[in-house]
Target: Signal recognition particle protein
Amino acid sequence: MFDNLSGRLEGIVKKIRGKGRLTEADVDEVMKEIRTALLEADVNVTVVRSVCNRIREHAIGATRSQALDPGQQVVKAVNDELTRALGGETLSITYASKPPTVVLMAGLQGSGKTTNSAKLASWFKAQGRQPLLVGADLQRPAAVEQLRTLGAQIDVPVYSDPEDPVLTAHQGLEEAKRLGRDVLIVDTAGRLSIDAEMMEQVRLISGAVDPDYTFLVIDAMTGQDAVQTAEAFHETLKIDGVIMSKMDGDARGGAALSVKEVIGRPIAFASTGEKLNEFEQFHPDRMAGRILGMGDMLTLIEQAEAAFEQDQAEQAAAKMMEGQFTLDDFLDQMQQIKKMGSLGNLMSMMPGIPKELKNADIDDDSLKPIEAIIRSMTMEERTFPKVINGSRRARIAAGSGTQVGDVNRLVKQFDEMQKMMKKMGVMGGGMGKKGKKG
Ligand code: GDP
Model:
């Protein structure tokens, strides 16, 4: 997702970053490119207009203020506006003072409601909660069975009654109280498109359980249609947030960038694959960073923390930020990374990773030559790859059963990645602290 938009914006950012001065003509040209990129990503036209107006305002300000680095200021404006369009703030969950906290899941059939009900339950579990799932989707054959299977995988009980969806929801709530479960997630029925009967049913279920949160599951692949669906649901139910599913697909991203403006509610969670752990809280600022090719170190660090030893994760993160991350650290992390879900998704969060690598279908096997190359290096070479001269290269290639070109490529890519991380670290550290210049 966002690949095309990201590619175009990265190109624009690269161009303006290097400019010492920006003229109004430069700004006009940049704005034209940004507008086209957003429209091509299927972003709602109203959103495109307001985003562009605000970026332009900042950009013109930067050209006039004799700012030291106007390009950087424009990049910041683009980043801020993408963040705003993606919802601004991260939606944080407030738990009901009288448990259970009730979550209602709504959406069209096939949007990923059932899968994401289970993913959300798993997320709550990771927060130390004890969820109960309720299968109130009696419309789609086998939806309850699917929920039971998923529930068993994550060790979360599932309640359902084949009689009636509204009754099921109501009894599910009673069941949660009886069992002392503190979060209730109600999966409801969807249809292929919105119809009156479905809306009435979900309205009745909502009335029966009085949810603290109503989440609308939207399939990112449906683009602008998704935004219309959201509007229709929002008219009947008070939507609190969106769960954007299938963000691993090649959707252009328009839905994600438009939904906040259209219904005034943010994306709360993002689903990035079919596996139950491919689900994360949605952080608009981090996503904006990813789109602009600046990586998303924070999410990466969080995912690492879930898989790594705490100390090790903190050390690795600190080293990355300071640009002291060596090839040996890289090898170490590679072993852990295998525990952290899809490699393609991880790559998309790292700054400075070349496009081809991000888009490649990366599996564990493709890491083997990289592992072998690093293992054939001495500790000195892993720490200071600059010492690797021609004869060392030949030795490493022979030792790892690869070609000299492979060794070259790894060293070069690692060098670029390190430079980029260093830059990010300096930017991240410098932003909030006045006087600390990069
Ligand atoms: P429901 O009809 O809304 O309950 O939809 P399901 O939960 O059954 O999901 C429909 C299909 O989408 C299933 O095959 C899921 O595995 C798949 N799916 C759900 N979320 C994701 C996602 O984030 N990425 C991908 N690739 N597939 C997903």
